[in-house]
Amino acid sequence: METDFAILEGIQKALLDGQELGWAIQKLRVFIHNHPFLRVGSQFEDIVTNYQLMKEYMLKGFKDEQREKLYRNLLCRMVRLVNDIYLRLQIEKGIGTFAQAYNKTDKMNYSFDSITETLEGFVQDIAMLSLEPEDSRNDKQRQIYRTHQHYMENVFESFLVSGQWSDSMVKSATQLLVSPTIDVNDARLLVSALMLSAMNVFDVNKFRTLVNVYLEAVDDVLRQRALVGIVFALPKNDYSLFPQYKEAISLLCQQEKNCRELLELQMQMFYCMDTDRDNETIQREIIPTLMKNNNFRITRFGIEEKEDDPMDDILHPDAADKAMEELENGIQRMMNMQKAGSDIYFGGFSQMKRFSFFYSISNWFVPFSVEHPELQHVMEKMKGTRFLEILLENGPFCDSDKYSFALAMTSIVDKLPANMKEMLNSQEMVGPAMPIADKNSPAYIRRMYLQDLYRFFRVCMQRTDFHNPFDYVKDVRNFFFANPVFSDTPLRAFAIELDYFLMKRKESRLLDMMLKNYEEHDNADYLLVSAQQALSQSRLEEAGKLFNKVLESQPDDERALKGLAQASFILGDYENARSCYQKLNELRPDSRQYLLNLCISQINVGSPEEGINGLYRLDYETPDNLNVKRALAWGLLVQHNVEQAERVYDKLLASGKCMAADYLNAGYCKWFAGQLDVAVKYFREYRKGVAEEKDSLSLVEVFKGDAKLLSQYGIGDTDMKVLADIICEEDVEVH
Question: Could you please report the per-residue DSSP string of 437-461?
Answer without folding.
Answer: HHHTSHHHHHHHHHHHHHHHHHH-G
